[in-house]
Amino acid sequence: MSYLGKQSTEKWQDILKEIRFLHQLNHPNTIEYKGCFLRDHTAWLVMEYCLGSASDIIEVHKRPLKEEEIAAICEGVLHGLHYLHALGRIHRDVKAGNILLTENGTVKLADFGSASTKCPANSFVGTPYWMAPEVILAMDEGQYDGKIDVWSLGITCIELAERKPPYFNMNAMSALYHIAQNDTPVLSSSDWSDIFRHFVDSCLQKNPNERPSSGKLLSHQMVTRLRSPHILVDLIQRTKTAVRELDNLNYRKMKKILMVEKFENESVVGDADVDRTIGANLKSTPKCTVQCVKADQSLDFATRDEECFTQQSYITAGSATRTKGHFNTTTKTFDHAKETSTKVHLCGRIQRKDNFTEGHLSRKIKRDNLRI
């Protein structure tokens, strides 16, 4: 928690208030305070280790909790709230995100930054969607007591059963208006038992005087009915397994993305090298000119052969070839250029031979004519 910047004095006082509050707590169902140290205008609070929150669990599984799992969590929360209320304390921010679980399945109330050391209280404090009606109306109509935590627990039951609290699709101000003015929210699905429905309805009585206390709810059938003593331990183990599978899946996805990026980078580098090779070869390739001559024109074939055919040009091109998981950049020499050069060379030799034969016959005819 940082206490630097604007209102640093107020921030520091809030930190001291929470530390004093935590230091006074000593109950199995409240988070244990270990110590505090300051560094770079930030207060670091050291708490006992917990695996995660009830909100984390439903987020991992992407589904609501079972009714008996919700009942086990509610029992731990009610024990913690009963302890706080007996001390004249109010949590004021009960929700799934502030309900932690340890390795052995113990439920822990956490995050006492909004807690009040006075009861009754009248401050507008809490998270809107879990806030009790009397907190919203407190500034106009008076004070409230620990029963606001019971309301928040009822909303938390709906959150665990439906993965979100009522009015969560609204903005905060609209949600506050509906909480204060509309009827009490209820469970939307008909699959839940009547016992669970009665427990939620009891927690969500709009009139605080009709709402049972945390101590009284500990005797509710929802809390006292038989269930496996390892219900939360089993839930934690399933969650840990799901987290490992999710981590492995995310690791494989990330590894695949990194491999694709690596291959694409290698392909770009390889293509650039090929382009430079082609450019260098084109610059170093000698020019070849083709001259067309008539049959009666004389040409020094020996000189032409030396100029045109002693220098052979080879055209190289790079082709990026994709193999299993990597790219190979190879260069190929096309035989077409060599084959064409050979054909031209042979044509030249044939043409020279024909010209030589034609000249020899012409001279012979002239000699024969002279004899005649």
TrEMBL record:
InterPro entries listed in its UniProt record: Kinase-like_dom_sf, Prot_kinase_dom, TAO_STE20_kinase
Gene3D superfamilies, A to Z: Phosphorylase Kinase, domain 1 (3.30.200.20), Transferase(Phosphotransferase) domain 1 (1.10.510.10)
Protein kinase domain sequence ranges: 1-223
Key words of the record: ATP-binding, Kinase, Nucleotide-binding, Serine/threonine-protein kinase, Transferase
Gene Ontology molecular function: any one: protein serine/threonine kinase activity
Keyword Secreted: no
E.C. no: 2.7.11.1
Any single Gene Ontology cellular-component annotation: cytoplasm
Source superkingdom: Eukaryota
Pfam families referenced in this protein's UniProt entry, alphabetically: Pkinase
Catalytic activity: L-seryl-[protein] + ATP = O-phospho-L-seryl-[protein] + ADP + H(+); L-threonyl-[protein] + ATP = O-phospho-L-threonyl-[protein] + ADP + H(+)
Coiled coil: none
SUPFAM superfamilies tied to this protein: Protein kinase-like (PK-like) (SSF56112)
PANTHER family: SERINE/THREONINE-PROTEIN KINASE TAO1-LIKE PROTEIN (PTHR47167), SERINE_THREONINE-PROTEIN KINASE TAO (PTHR47167:SF4)
Protein name as it appears in the record: non-specific serine/threonine protein kinase
Organism: Timema poppense
